[in-house]
Design brief:
Elements lengths: L4 H9 L1 E3 L8 H8 L4 E4 L8 H11 L4 E4 L20 H7 L2 H16 L5 E2 L24 H17 L5 E5 L20 H8 L1 H8 L4 E4 L17 H11 L5 E4 L5 H4 L4 H11 L4 E3 L7 H16 L4 H22 L21 H10 L1 E4 L14 E5 L15 H8 L4 E5 L14 E5 L6 H13 L4 E4 L10 E4 L5 H11 L3
Parallel strand pairs: 1-8, 2-3, 3-4, 5-6, 6-7, 10-11, 10-12, 12-13, 13-14
Antiparallel strand pairs: 9-14
Length: about 500
């Protein structure tokens, strides 16, 4: 195969790999100097000098697209060590104030823009129509398509108004699934008419709002393409998204090492077929220690062009959209194209978190009192806290580091916190102290639901705090936070202690 440096550079331009560590490895710097067009950051890359890391990347390629997954709520990278300063999409949907949602996008844009990041893989534009969805849930604005559409547009406006590109995901809609695409290929068994009415409105709204990027989901949608997942389907990516919805921006894949597609084909073939179907950038979350898999992907794309499996004009078009996004960032940073400067984050003086985010978390609390509960209880003595947790899915990364138990312990010294997991959930002795039980999607986890029922049977006075999607209210007080973040925990502790 003849060597063509120009073709090599085009192929490198469409890749967005991750890497390990808080300093860029040599292989990454070398590939950036050779034309690598993107890099994605994860919590493992974040330090006190993330801005310095990004500057170092740009020294090798000034036009590199630096991406990150910063949704707020459970999915955070820059605040992974402390928990997010914003409660997430479900809380914003419950409050239903589009101005607040736009300001939230603007504050997150300020956080990212201050580090030099180009692209945020957010907002999640999925309509969470199935309460048993294991991977979307409170990452969605809600189950109503019109609500999700208007908040998707507002979030995009806020983020891009701060000079950071937004990315609506996961096209054509991950909300009606019971499978996590990190683990297997989900299927959406909905008619085309239902998709148009339920799943697609937020993406129409995103396009109308001028979203710079859309991420396709690894989803089988037989009514759109009975033979191929959306990532590999020209019917979905080109026919539906480009031609019908009129999207002209950058189309990026979800990470191609996710088992939804990685179990079907080798990664190089996924990359080539996704590009042929209409994708412009290939997200590769995990890279080998020396970047060998990134080189393999680049070479596979070049080889596909030589062999006729991928048209060179399609690769040129894809690389052009990557470069156009980099150019958009430059215009945004200088205030051109109607893009305003970043909005500063106003901090709460007591907690050091976003005042807007904390206020949103307070407004998103929903309380149901039991039949025998006369009024709002106030904890004045240290409670016993039982926190039921599950292994976080891969989109979240690590467990949320700050919960209601810790927030209560800071206000009421002597608070005892017990953590239960799917592997270790023997019920502890229930003492005489006030009892707070914290759950996350208890309706989806059998062991959690059974334990909760037993705890409430023994202690009808228990306070139940649900940090995921609300279920059937139980206990003397049932408090739904509609978010699982640092500010959600703070708002919960405030409410329970009468503040």
């Amino acid at each position: 195969m003849p060597h063509n440096p120009d073709l090599d550079r085009l192929a490198a331009t469409v890749l967005q790999p991750g890497f390990d560590g808080t300093t860029p490895p040599g292989w990454l710097l070398r590939q950036l100097s050779e034309g690598l067009g993107g890099v994605v950051l994860f919590a493992r890359n974040i330090s006190e000098d993330t801005a310095g890391l990004v500057r170092r990347l740009r020294q090798e390629n000034p036009r590199v697209v630096v991406a990150v997954d910063e949704e707020g709520g459970t999915v955070t990278r820059l605040e992974a060590a402390t928990g997010s300063s914003w409660p997430g999409n479900a809380a914003l949907g419950v409050v239903d104030d589009v101005g607040r949602t736009e300001r939230t996008g603007g504050e997150i844009g300020h956080l990212l823009g201050s580090t030099g990041i180009t692209l945020d893989y957010a907002p999640d534009a999925d309509v969470n129509s199935d309460p048993d969805n294991p991977v979307i849930g409170i990452r969605s604005f809600g189950a109503d398509p019109e609500l999700v559409a208007r908040h998707t547009a507002a979030w995009i406006s806020g983020l891009q108004g701060a000079g950071v590109a937004a990315c609506a995901k996961h096209f054509p809609g991950h909300g009606d699934t019971v499978t996590d695409s990190h683990l297997a290929l989900p299927a959406v068994h909905a008619s085309r008419e239902l998709l148009e009415r339920r799943d697609l409105p937020p993406f129409h709204a995103a396009v109308a709002a001028g979203v710079q990027v859309i991420m396709c989901g690894h989803l089988m949608v037989p009514s759109l393409d009975p033979g191929l997942p959306a990532t590999l389907s020209r019917r979905v990516l080109t026919g539906l998204l480009r031609e019908e919805l009129g999207f002209g921006g950058l189309l990026v894949t979800d990470a191609i090492e996710m088992k939804a597609v990685a179990a079907l084909l080798p990664q190089p073939e996924i990359a080539v077929r996704a590009l042929a179907a209409g994708a412009d950038a290939i997200c590769v979350g995990a890279s080998s220690p020396g970047g060998e898999n990134v080189t393999e992907l680049r070479d596979a794309i070049v080889r596909a062009v030589h062999e006729g499996a991928l048209e060179e004009t399609r690769l040129v078009e894809a690389a052009g959209r990557v470069r156009a996004l980099a150019a958009w960032r430059e215009r945004a940073r200088t205030g051109h194209a109607g893009v305003a400067g970043p909005r500063a984050i106003e901090l709460d003086t007591e907690y050091g978190v976003s005042r807007l985010g904390l206020d949103t978390a307070r407004l998103a609390l929903r309380v149901t009192l039991g039949d025998d509960t006369a009024g709002r209880p106030v904890l004045t003595s240290p409670p016993q806290v039982i926190e039921m947790t599950v292994r976080p899915h891969q989109a979240i990364g690590g467990a949320v580091p700050y919960g209601p138990g810790q927030a209560l312990a800071e206000r009421l010294p002597g608070t005892v916190v017990t953590t239960l997991t799917p592997d270790r959930h023997d019920l502890p002795e229930l003492g005489q102290s006030p009892l707070v039980v914290v759950t996350h999607d208890a309706h989806r986890h059998g062991w959690m639901g059974r334990l909760l029922t037993e705890i409430v049977r023994r202690r009808p006075d228990a306070i139940v705090v649900e940090m995921g999607l609300p279920g059937r209210p139980l206990g003397a007080v049932y408090l739904a936070t509609n978010g699982n973040s640092r500010v959600s925990a703070l708002a919960t502790a405030e409410w329970l202690t009468g503040r």
